[in-house]
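ENTRY TYPE: paired fold submission
RECORD: A
CONTENT: sequence, then structure tokens
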Amino acid sequence: MDDLEELQPQKNTIEMERWNISDLKDYISKLELEIEKAKKIIKKKESVNDS
């Protein structure tokens, strides 16, 4: 669960306010990649359950 904890929103949103636009966009891109990975895992698990 440590990986999941790392992905959770930061407790201190003020820090994100200090990030520049490029850093914010990079952060969003990383989150989107993680979302896609999770969706693929879900799809794989659902196909196993359907068999």
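RECORD: B
CONTENT: sequence, then structure tokens
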Amino acid sequence: MGTATTDITTQNFKELVEKDGIVLIDWWAPWCGPCRAFSPIYERVAAANPDVTFGKVNTEDQQALAAEFEIQSIPTLMIFRERVLLFSQPGMLPQPALEDLIKQVKALDMNEVRKEIEAQKKKAAAGGKPADVTA
């Protein structure tokens, strides 16, 4: 029985995050104490959620990828769903918090999320001024 997580490299990153469904990414390094402490939690939650893709990026081996995503501190957890980055936060999560986060991501209405993203883009394109400002 192998691991419930996938090692992510520059070669397979795009393929993994562009999958349908939910993809979690744990950015870590072998020398990082909190990363080593978070690893068994991440593995347990991965094993309990076979419908979710759990990936790990070793920032020592994948420095270009870490630089591209501006990873400043590790561990950092990212969650994508349907190619949309929904969550990115440095720091270790306790198992109940990670499980709760996955439940929240599963419960999201992605049509609403996409509408919100479009609204934000339009707002930014219009100079970032809210439409409902009265003089």
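NOTES ON RECORD B: The chain has one domain: 6-125. The chain has a mean pLDDT of 89.
STATUS: closed
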